[in-house]
Amino acid sequence: MNKKTNSLFYKQMLTGKTVFMSFLIAAIFSSCSKNNEEITSEAQTNAFNADNVKKGQLNGQEITYERKNGMNFFQGDIVLTDKQLSEGNEVNKGGASYSRWPNGKIYYTIAGNMGSINVNKINSAISEYNNKTNTQWIYRTNQANYVEFIFGSSSGSDGWAHIGYQGGKQTISLDQYISVGSVIHEMGHTVGLYHEHTRKDRDQYVKILWNNIQNGQSYNFNIYNSGTDIGPFNINSVMMYWPTSYSKNGLPTITRADNSNFTYTRTGFTTGDINTINAMYP
Ligand SMILES: [Zn+2]
């Protein structure tokens, strides 16, 4: 059942075409568009099990997360460390300033089995960060604190990432058919961004259609009150969910607040995304 429901989610992810800013890069990626259409979706993680849904504290707020594969998944693709959760009842720990990368410098490595197509996507996404934001992604030599891009699945189009700066080694996981936009999205979590639809002010802009959400997944749509909303809500943010994310019936799980549908492509940064990251890393 989970495979079926997840496939809907993946299809939505694939609607985000990997249109990119530069013709050069677009040319490189035209070669993988065929593969995108041939995707066979496979759940990257264990089937949903209500027993795995846990309550915890994050930055002083009670949150719901799913424990699977030995990791704590929050809002679907954000991985919280046990340390973050254990410190979560202390408001001053694990908070916004704590989770920033020092001087905006993010050191990274790429797992040897990543494959050249994904390496190209990573390099394109890194160029976007390095050219447009105050964060600088730098290939690691011997730094103690860094993020490793790992290869998640050869058949999926999904990803996940730790949120913010952890200290030591942390991870971004990318499946084979993930889009460049979603690589930028996962890197956004590494920088410290949560999802746009969980902003405190989101109800002014979007409506959550709870009845269309898969059983047990509603918590992924909860407002995250401990976050800091920077700049105006932007429905086109690279950190937004798709209109039918976690849909159990193909109908929207998110519409605009006036009940109208929106289209979402996740091609890359909006100006608002860049401004937000630069406010976090002045
Ligand atoms: Zn995400």
TrEMBL record:
This is Peptidase M12A domain-containing protein. The keyword Nucleus does not apply. PROSITE patterns: ASTACIN, PROKAR_LIPOPROTEIN. Residues 89-282 form the Peptidase M12A domain. Zn(2+) binds at residues 185, 189, 195. Keywords: Hydrolase, Metal-binding, Metalloprotease, Protease, Zinc. Binds 1 zinc ion per subunit. The keyword Protease applies. Its cofactor is Zn(2+). InterPro entries: Astacin-like_dom, MetalloPept_cat_dom_sf, Peptidase_M12A, Peptidase_Metallo. The active site is at 186.
